[in-house]
Amino acid sequence: MTGDKSIHGEFLTNLMVNYDYNHQNGTHKELFKITSCHVSYFEEKGYDATVKQELTRTNNTLGEIIKNPILGIFPKIITNTLEYTFPSTTAFFAKTPIGDIAQIHILYPETEKITKTFILMYAQVVNPLIKFLFKNSVLQAAATVIEQDTSAVESLYSRQKPKIRLPNEEIMFYAEKLYRNW
């Protein structure tokens, strides 16, 4: 799957959403029923960074699963890896019961106030029948994630200095430091 979306907002704001691995607890909580995020590993090396995390979730309702069947197969704990290459690329890797998923986000500052994001999504499924049954559902979930991220960029992220630090924010400070020195 590929797609692109023009997002209003300057590049730094978009960059911060990609580097904010706390945001799924709020932005994607309703879709994936995420209750907590535990970061087990964070390493920065120059313009590259790696994060390993476990997302704990509750069950989706039967209505949500009927609307989007892929939600029914996600495990209670989703283990994933995020690989960041500043300034433009975030790769998300996860293992699910139907196979391995890789989602690549590429940011492109089109103008001073508009950033375009491109999404590439790959899945290596365990058998062809599952690919046939879940292909549209995976794409639908990815499209919902993009819409939620767009909404977060356009409305949730203020650019004032925070008064408190949340857990797991070190990668956001790392990304902002790289941006300011870029």
Low-confidence stretches: 1-8
Helix content: 25-40%
Computed CA radius of gyration, to the nearest angstrom: 16 Å
- The global form is globular
> In which order are the strands of the major sheet placed?
1-7-6-5-4-3-2
Number of helices: 6
Average pLDDT works out at 78
Would you kindly provide a written description of the structure presented here, covering whatever features stand out?
By secondary structure, this protein is an alpha+beta fold. It has 6 helices and 7 strands; from the N terminus they run E-H-H-H-E-E-H-E-E-E-E-H-H. Strands 1-7-6-5-4-3-2 form a 7-stranded antiparallel β-sheet. A hairpin with a 3-residue loop joins strand 4 (77-85) and strand 5 (89-96). Helix 1 packs antiparallel against helix 6. The protein is globular and about 50 Å long. It starts with a strand and ends with a helix.
Concise synopsis of the structure shown:
By secondary structure, this protein is of the alpha+beta class. It contains six helices and seven strands, in the order E-H-H-H-E-E-H-E-E-E-E-H-H.
